[in-house]
Amino acid sequence: MEIELENSWKEALKDEMCKPYFKELMAFLDLQYISTGDCIFPKKLEIFQALNLCPLGSVKVVILGQDPYPTRGFAHGLCFSVEEAVFPYPKSLSNIFKELESDIGKPIHANGNLRRWAEQGVLLLNTVLTVEEGKPDSHAGKGWELFTDAILSAINQQKIEIVYFLWGSKAQNKAVKLDLKHNLVLKTVHPSPLSAYRGFFGSKHFSQANNYLLEIGKTPIIW
Predict the structure, then answer these.
(1) Preceding amide of 42 cis, omega within 30
(2) pLDDT-derived band at 181, boundaries 50, 70, 90
(3) 204 pLDDT band (50/70/90 cuts)?
(4) Which residues pair with 132 in a beta bridge?
(5) Other Cβ atoms within 10 Å of 208 Cβ, number
(6) N- or C-end of the chain: fewer Cβ atoms within 10 A?
(7) Is the pLDDT reported for residue 196 higher than 90?
(8) Distance in angstroms (rounded) separating the CA atoms of residues 89 and 92
(9) DSSP class of residue 211?
(10) By the 8 A CB rule, do 149 and 176 touch?
(11) Confidence at 160, pLDDT banded by 50, 70, 90
(12) DSSP state of 44
């Protein structure tokens, strides 16, 4: 499968993309896109959207999701984000907006496309970057987890003082890849309706992130 990747990430990940597991993953995806028609999300050109919109040197905040929405028309390569026409929002995204409003008084957005965050330095990274329609976690264990580990390692090697939002156990399992001493790592439960009331609401991660960015001399995010 042909990969279109922003130059700074292409350089940082070039060795990773030469490893056997990654080549096997790309071959698996080629077969999936061919055999299932258009039932793999996101579209091929959007698989690496999170990286392409947020170059390595621009990363200020990393939000880790799980895998893309398995609902047609939702996923477009940014975790928790949906295409502009999608409404009502998925429940996790709706809860994110509710917490944002409670935390910093930001009115709920008119659309759920979080590209506006990515372009300010928020890496909206799923731990698994593809999924089959109607089958959550269908591409888990195929190699994406190793690749997203490599992305986090690349950030650690070239950057310090990053804010990480680790929402839920799957994201928190990635903490072993992070430099806890030189970054702000914020943990709470997943914003899913199954868990949001057990700590996500009231976590105030958005204001904590911006306060930290101001303290280290960086421009805060316009959430």
Answers:
(1) yes
(2) confident
(3) very high
(4) 40, 135
(5) 15
(6) N
(7) yes
(8) 8
(9) H
(10) no
(11) confident
(12) G
